[in-house]
Design a protein that fits this description.
By secondary structure, the protein is of the alpha+beta class. 56% of the residues lie in helices and 9% in strands.
Length: 603
């Protein structure tokens, strides 16, 4: 494997594999011819494998980097996982021996079947070293498949032993010990499967279990012309969603003709974007820069003013997770293609495997609005916002249905309130009072606002995004175009839902640069004012009321993702303020109400 092994780890891994293989050799010999000397030989080796494992862990400091954003850290993490797995196999060998020692009638031990299983384990130990050393995916896959083979061995033995236990004169105690042995065999297979997955992850540079790798291989084979395999692809982690889905960029490790052309033309066409021709994939990958910036130093970095038109040469975006979630994403994208073509990425391929599923999605050029807000110039951000407003105007007028609809902001808020309190228990009402007057709880305010909301229908419905955060919108500076990603919540609904979510997604960005934060809040305010003008043009007289309730909902519910007590507190207080403000207005004169956006979007 073309990776820099930390000092001494290669030797220690070799010693560890040799030690654990020797222990299984002694266990195998004991099964064939049980002797006290052989048992003692194995039991006395306790601790040696663990010591070697600890040496490897100590030599891999980058394995403790939980983000593991680069190949070296991922390799070290895989190395530690392999060492830990081998140490675990050592424990299982001793545990298996301890059960066998307690069996009085050695005739009950099916030594042929057990020795066959132990040989499988020993082959797996050898493959773990060789596959990691050589970066061999074929060996890693054989190692991962050991899980199923040893599971079958174990299940067959358990069935046979259970059948014997049903007999009246069965030696229950001996058979019980042998059932534990069969269970240990299954656990050995599980460990070998994990070792295989660790090597696959090290080879591809991203955490992949066997099921994910199988999906990736299937989809990559469908993507190309057969000239490249999954092993020749680079897999870059881009994002992990709160729903458990993972998003990765798939790039070729082979220099493509296109890449060669780009190098040769570099001096001739500086003004052209490197990725103007789309190869296909999902725009969700453009979460890359924004996702990496979350909680990173880029939050403190001022905009550069540069125009980054280049992007990684991804062939496609690989998204996998629970089958239900992935299917929602697929259906959401396809609905957008039917309703408003060109705004969503194309689905290149879909693969279902058990309870999991995966998509290969078109890779779109550009960057997320979150990346723009944090890293780019005011000029480019204003350009992007104007493109967004024009796109929304087009989408909403095209998809408009003249049928009143209610978003149910207060219902949504009440549903998520327990999650908010779990993260911020200090937000619970504790009988607070002001100047001797008891303040109503947030729940009481929500209940009153819910009654008001029932009379505030949107006069028409449009097709909305449904999760209109700044990291779900892409802007391509080269084409001055907007695209949407993460579309599983799209539906015909009140457009205020998207407006309120989008505005609060600006506010909740965790930034320490005061000037940058002020600029971002000014953009959120500008967006709200432009949406206000759109509502006026449409004759939407209850827009301000609904926007107030939508903002209260988004400010409050977004705090469950914010651990910064100061920022979360400001957001929660804004939600309370908005509810009190709207409840104090005259519902008989809806056209006179105006939400004070200028007071909300400023620190």
């Amino acid at each position: 494997m073309d990776q820099a092994w930390p000092e001494s780890t290669r030797d220690n891994l070799r010693f560890l594999c040799s030690e654990v293989d020797s222990q299984y050799g002694w266990l195998q010999a004991f099964v064939s011819a049980p002797t006290a000397a052989m048992a003692r030989k194995l039991l006395e080796r306790q601790g040696y494998a663990e010591n070697l494992c600890q040496r490897i862990e100590q030599a891999c400091p980058e394995a403790r980097n939980h983000k593991r954003s680069h190949a070296r850290a991922r390799f070290q993490q895989s190395l530690v996982e392999v060492a830990s797995g081998l140490a675990r196999l050592s424990e299982l060998a001793r545990s298996c021996l301890e059960q066998l020692i307690r069996v009085d009638d050695v005739q009950l031990v099916d030594d042929v079947v057990l020795v066959k299983s132990l040989r499988r384990v020993r082959r797996g130990i050898l493959r773990s070293e060789m596959s990691l050393e050589n970066g061999s995916l074929s060996l890693a896959l054989k190692l991962a498949r050991s899980r199923e083979k040893l599971k079958r061995d174990s299940e067959g033995r358990i069935r046979a032993l259970t059948g014997q236990l049903k007999k009246k004169s069965a030696p229950a105690e001996d058979l019980t010990h042998l059932l534990f042995v069969a269970r240990e065999i299954s656990q050995m297979g599980e460990v070998l499967g994990q070792l295989g997955e660790a090597v696959i992850s090290a080879t591809l540079g991203q955490s992949l279990n066997f099921e994910r790798y199988a999906s990736l291989t299937h989809l990559v084979n469908e993507l190309g012309d057969g000239s490249q395999t999954a092993g020749e692809m680079r897999v870059d982690t881009l994002a992990e969603t709160r729903s458990g889905s993972r998003i990765s960029g798939i790039a070729s490790e082979k220099p493509s003709e296109r890449a060669v052309e780009k190098v040769s033309d570099k001096g001739n066409d500086k003004g052209k974007p490197a990725n103007d021709k789309q190869q296909g994939s999902k725009s969700k990958d453009r979460k890359t820069d924004a996702s990496k910036s979350k909680g990173s130093k880029s939050r403190d970095r001022k905009p550069t003013g540069d125009l980054p038109l280049t992007s990684p040469e991804y062939l496609a975006i690989f998204k996998d997770g629970l089958g239900r979630k992935v299917e929602e994403e697929r259906q959401g994208v396809e609905r957008w293609h039917d309703i408003y073509p060109g705004i969503a990425p194309r689905i290149l391929s879909h693969h279902q495997q058990g309870d999991s599923a995966a998509l290969l999605i078109e890779h779109l050029p550009g960057m997320t609005l979150e990346h723009l807000l944090i890293n780019e110039s005011s000029r480019l951000n204003r350009t992007a916002q104007q493109a967004l407003v024009e796109t929304l105007h087009s989408v909403w007028t095209t998809t408009r249905r003249d049928k009143p609809v209610t978003a149910g902001h207060m219902r949504q808020l009440l549903k998520r309130l327990s999650d908010v309190y779990q993260i911020h228990p200090e937000f619970r009402h504790c009988g607070a009072s002001l100047c001797g007057r008891e303040m109503p709880s947030l729940e009481a305010l929500i209940e009153q606002a819910a009654g008001l909301e029932r009379s505030l229908e949107a006069p028409f419905a449009v097709y909305i995004h449904g999760d209109f955060n700044v990291d779900n919108i892409l802007f391509d500076p080269a084409k001055q175009s907007i695209r949407f990603i993460d579309l599983h919540r799209s539906a015909y609904q009140d457009y205020v839902q998207d407006v309120s979510v989008h505005m609060v997604s600006h506010y909740r960005l965790q930034l320490t640069d005061a000037a940058l934060r002020a600029r971002i809040l000014a953009l959120a305010l500008s967006f709200g004012q432009q949406m206000r003008r759109f509502a006026h043009e449409q004759g939407d007289t209850t827009f301000e009321w609904r926007l107030a309730l939508g903002l209260a909902r988004s400010f409050a519910t977004s705090t469950r993702f914010i651990l910064d007590a100061g920022l979360a507190g400001r957001m929660f207080n804004r939600a309370r303020f908005i509810l009190e403000h709207v409840l104090g207005a005259d519902p008989e004169r809806p056209a006179d109400y105006r939400i004070p956006l200028e007071e909300l979007f400023v620190d």
